[in-house]
Every structure is written in C-alpha cells, then in structure tokens.
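Extended Data, panel c. Modelled sequence:
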Amino acid sequence: MKTAVCLFVLALLGLPTQAQTIHSPGRKLTLQFQLSPAGEPTYQLRYGARPVVLPSRLVVLLKDAPGFDRGFTIAKVDSSRHDDTWTPVWGEVKQIRNHYQELAVTVQQAAAQNRQLVLRFRLFDDGLGFRYEFPEQANLKYFTVSDERTEFNLAADHQAFWIRGDYDTNEYIYSTTKLSEVGPTTYKVTPEISTQVPIAPNAVQTPLMLKSADGLYVNLHEAALVNYPAMALLVNGATHGLVSQLTPSAAGPDSKAFLQAPARTPWRTVVVADNAPAILASKLILNLNEPSKIQDTGWITPQKFVGVWWEMHVNKGNWFYSDVTNIQLAGADFTQFKPTGRHSANTANVKRYIDFAAKNGLQSVLVEGWNVGWEDWFGNWKEEVFDFVTPYPDFAVDELQAYAAARNVKLIMHHETSGSVTNYERRMDAAYRFMKAHNYDAVKTGYVGRIIPRGEHHDGQWMVNHYVHAAQQTAANRIMVDMHESVRPTGLHRTYPNWLANEAARGNEFNAWSQGNPPEHETILPFTRLMGGPMDYTPGIFQIKLDAYAPQNKGKQVHTTLAKQLALYVTLYSPLQMAADLPETYEKLSDAFQFIRDVAVDWDDTRILAAEPGDHLTTVRKAKGKDEWYLGSITDEQPRQQSVRLDFLTPGVRYVATVYADGKGADWQKNPMAYQIRQVPVTSKSKLDLKLAPGGGAAVSFKPATREKGKN
C-alpha cells in the first residue's frame, strides 16, 4: 500500500567532472559521485562523518569492444525522492517502508565510442544500492561483459566474516579475520564439499559482513540478481580495497555476461549501521527488488513440515532402491531389480510420517528418494539422471495421495537434478503436470554436482537465469519452490513470493557426515547468507549424538544443544521450516517438541533485541494475525547470560511465557540434550533472564494468559 510519494527532478547538462552529492532521507548517509580527471566514474559513501567507502571506481569491461571505464563526461543528472509502504505476501514484518533518495547520472563517452551509460544510486538511511544501466543506442545493442570491476575501497582493516569465493558452492565454514588476513592460511578446509571451484586465494563470497574497530557495521552484497552472473569479491589486504569478480560462462573467462540493450546489472548493496541489530533489521535488499509478479498469491502458504530425509543422512536408510550401479532410464525395469531393503521412501514409511504430521499439526511431508535413478545419480556428470515422474516400485503414488489428503496433509515433491539442468528443463512441464495431478503444490529442487551444460557454474549467468525460470514456471503452475545448492539469494522472493526459501549455505545436514558446523555458525548466518533471503537450514535436531541412530555415526554430532535447535526456528528466518529429526525421536521428547508445534512461520513484527556476529543473537517475532510472540536466543561456544526486557508485549495484557532452556550442566559437547521447560507469568513490564550454555540457546513462547490458571 502506497502511503506517500514525493518526486523532484534536476537535470544538469554538460558537467564534465562536477561532484554530485545526495543525502539519505534522514541524512544518516552521504553519497558523492564524481568523475576522475581521466573521466572515470567514482563514488564514495559516508555514515555521518565516518567514511564507509573511500573513492572507488565503477568499471564494466566488454569483450571485443572498448570498456565502460574512462573518457566519460556527465551528460545528465536526475535526482528524485521516493517514499511508500508495501505489504509482503509473507515475511518478518507486516509492512515495509521503501524510502530513499535517488541519483541517476548519465555519462557519455565521446570519440569513436559515442556511448552512454546510466549509473543509478538509491540511498536509504540503512545503506546504498547502485547499478549500471545500458540504454539501447546506435553503438550498443548486443554485447558481452568480459569483466566488472566495481570497487569497494574501505577505510580500514575491518574484521571480516567470510567464506572462500567459489563459482559453485556456498557451503564453506566461516572464517573471522581482519581483511588483511584473508587468504589460504585462514581459509577453513572443507573436503566434504563435492563440487568446489575456488576463485582465487584472496576471493570471498557475498554477503560479506564487516565490522570496523570503532563499531561501524557494513554488509556488502547484491540485489535482484537476474540475467547476470553472481558477484564475489577480491580482497587487497594491503589497501583494504575490494573489487567485484563475476562468475564466468562456459564460453570462457572473458565471457561473463551476454547482454542485449537495454540492459542493467543487479544492484550492488552496502548496508551500514552503527549497531549489529540494525543490520539484521534492514530491508534494503528487498526494497531494491521489483514488486510481486504474481497477482493472485492466496495459494502461497508458509508452512512447517517433516520429511523422509534425515534418516538417510544418519544411515538408517537410503535414497536408492536397488543395488544396480549402472542405470539407463530409457527401458529400465526396476521391478526386475533386487531391492536393498533399506529404501526409505517406501509407502509404509511415508504413511508413518504423514500420520505424525497430522497428529502434530504440521502441514506437509517431504519425501526424497521416491523416484527412479538414485542408484548412479552422483559424481558421474550424467545427463539423463532422473525423469521426475516415475516412482520406485515400493512408492505408491496414488495410494499416498489419497492417504495424505484424508489426513489434511500435503506431500512435498523432490526434484534433485544432480546438476543436469538441461535434463530438468526438458522435463519440467511433465514434472509439474505430474505434481498437479497428484496434489503436490510445493517442490524442493537440488543442484548437487557439476552443472550440465558442461562448463557452466552454479553461480553463472546461465544458471541464474535457470533459477528465475524455475521460479516463474512453478508460479505459473501455482507451485511453491525451495531451491538447494543454488546461487545465494538476492531478495527475489519479493518478486516471486512462491520462491519460499533456498539453501545456498552450509546447512544442518553437514553435522551428520562431516566435521560439522561450529557453534558460532548460526550466529554468523543471519549477518551473511540470510541478508539475501530465507534459508532452509533444517533445524530441530533433538538426537544430538548421532551414533544413537547407527554405529557408523560414531563421533558425529550436531554442534549445538537441543534448546538451541529450538531457538533456530526464530533466529534463522524462513517461511518454510522443517522439523528435521525423526518422528520417533520427537515422540520421545514430546514436551520439547511442543515449541515446534506452536512456533509460527509468518510474522507481523520482528525485533532484534541483541546481536553480535559470531557471538550471539536474540530475536523476537510476533505471529501473523495473533497476539503471540516467539523468542530465540543463541550463543557460540561461550556460555552467556541474556537479560531480556519484555516491553515488546502488549501493555496491560498478561502472558504466560513458556521457556525452553538449556538444562543444568548443558554443553554442546558434553551434555547437549539437557533441557528444562518452565512457565512464567509476565507482562510488558517484566524482564526475563536466560542462561545459555556453551553452544546453547533458549526458545520462548508468549501467549495471552487465560482465566483458568495454568492454561495458555
């Protein structure tokens, strides 16, 4: 809903190098644009009197043509102010204000090129977005970007929370170092990632979180990544300068984006605040994305689900049906193959999950491994891997459809592509028809392995276009989508609200079969990966020591306490939340599972009460359309005391706070499953003291008290 719009235009002609300055609406930030003596576009950014970005060049280079780098004069300057409020289909808050000052500078290259480029800046009180725009003109119609060298020259050697820059994965463990220390000696080795294409020893992925010595917080990322490769950053440790590095295409390192004018790049984003909670509260990236392209959104439903998934990760079952290791889809008769007896996606087992979901008020059940092809799906760079419509002999599609419908539970489809995206795109229409015929309205896609078309990368332009195409095609079929192993998100869930979540980072599953995720991991993710959009992290693991499931899991465990797993439902935002552990485990610990039954997945309000990247986070959220609040508080490997003022509650209303906390002696390594539950009467004037164990957390529900004592 628009509340106010104020626009004004200023046109200045023939200004060769004159500096242009704008302020954010509340004058917190100041942007200055200027051409250098060589005609190079530059910008700089200040937060009050404190420098955020020192003078930095804006450069796009072309293949087989002169670059957009120098020799410019200013042809035109347009300035305007925008202020409106919009309502997301789902999200962390009920309404979002979009308030910025815009500066659009048209620069002209004379001489032989005779070309124009528009540099558009939007300055908010919480940061800056800017992009390159290429108008159609006589000397620019079809062109190939060989490189983009956008600079972010920082004022000092900031502390950085970073993962290694890679064209194919975002699943590394975070390092925390000075910018000058980024490199191979501080990168954390992760051999368990199957497809790695590191960019350079000094490359880091975005979103990149930075903190200055004097307490300024800066986050670098991008917004509205469409028809363009993803951006990493190369770090110059000596100068503290960063420069963009685009993912190349299969055509070679000098062919990164194939464009046709008029065209534009994604927004480059700089979120800035003098406190950590304000970074997490920023909606700048969402505001830089286009409004929803889906008119009727009533079918899009945030939800909680269980799934036939974790049991395979902990070696209680398999994705594959038979022991055949060389499958050719055409003509394969799986009824003639010998079953292993360990195939998890069988009719009886799926019914068990459906029953559990129905009993506990969960909306849906994910089933992985239901379809033929899993026997040789991984590591072969095989094109014809899955057909997405043929079930294994022990998976009764029609029977399960009826069984789920009778219990008011939906099944979630799984489309693993094994990186063979050409195969998936050929079969998309048939796959989505199959889904609709069998009452599926959500799909989890996966892109494990090397990409086909061979030579393309997960983060290149071709794949970026595929992810958007998948969002569009699922939307056309009224299907919600959750993408795993995709490019990191950039706020496109505003434009395609059926795109509920991505993985695109190191999720909870790594705790099952690798060195795991260190306790600080979940305190860093909101400041990095989640800046671009929701993550399907798959929280809710209660059986922390995994050898309880199978002896071959000896030494494997989730690196949190049980109470912290509950807190993650609040601190790691997603409208699609999995109760990831096994039904039998939840049934044994039903009192703790009550928080998962209760917690919402769509919100009217969100408050970041305390935060410090890599250390701790306390978040509280108000459930959509209810006077119920849910709080999550987590810590790294250090124990902490968090004192929480409850002034977010409605004044004059009495609530019952149900606190799910670390128990006596809890410790993520030594005693991770110790928890305690207590109920406390509270009001908006109350204070709640939470004790967080090493690697621990606390989850709290606040519900209005009823007249009958002890009920809520």
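The radius of gyration is 26 Å. This feature is highlighted in the accompanying rendering.
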